[in-house]
Amino acid sequence: MRTRPALAFLTSGALLLVAGCAPQPAPAPTSTTPPPAAPPPPVLATTVPAGQAQLIVNGRDVGPIGPVVCSAADGFARYTIGQTSFGVTVVITDDDMPSVRSVTIGDAGGISIGYAADVSEDAPQAFRHGDTLTVTGSGAGTDSTNPARVVPTTYQLAVACP
User: Fold this and answer.
1) What range does the domain containing 100 cover?
2) Using CA atoms, how far apart are residues 159 and 66, in angstroms rounded to an integer?
3) Main-chain phi, psi angles of 156, to 5 degrees
4) How many domains does the chain have?
5) Per-run averaged pLDDT (10 residues), the chain, 162 residues
6) Which residues have CB under 8 Å from 37's CB, separation 6+?
7) What is the pTM for the complete model shown?
8) Which residue in 63, 86, 79 sits closest to 126, CA to CA?
9) Coarse DSSP helix, strand, coil percentages of the chain, rounded to the nearest 5 percent
10) Per the domain annotation, does 4 fall within a domain?
11) What's the CA gap between 86 and 60, in Å, rounded?
């Protein structure tokens, strides 16, 4: 009668020994292909063709936009770009080292933004590169689907008069 428990004990010990000696399964193959890299952020052109503009909002290139209309009066230059629903207007001092007086960007990728000197913080920077003007700035934009929502926004603009 004692042989059954002893036999059961020996059988279970033999099973553990066999299981411990069983070959281990091969590891799953690993991929040598690296994960896809994120595309580089868009780069603002320092020159654009006459009558064209490039706009980048929150790191997204909105693409070339136009038409461009330029005017100058009383020491200020005004750049008006695009159609009414997607209009961009920039007013700068008309000199070699321009300062930005106002920027209005309407619904670029769902965001609208405005800047007015002496009212807004964080003045945008403007530079001339030959016939191209570049403007870079940031501020609080509004979401076109929910105008009460304020969206931190960065923008870059390159524009050349026709």
Assistant:
1) 53-160
2) 9
3) -140, 135
4) 1
5) 52 51 63 66 80 91 86 95 81 92 88 90 90 92 90 93 92
6) none
7) 0.72
8) 79
9) 10, 45, 40
10) no
11) 15
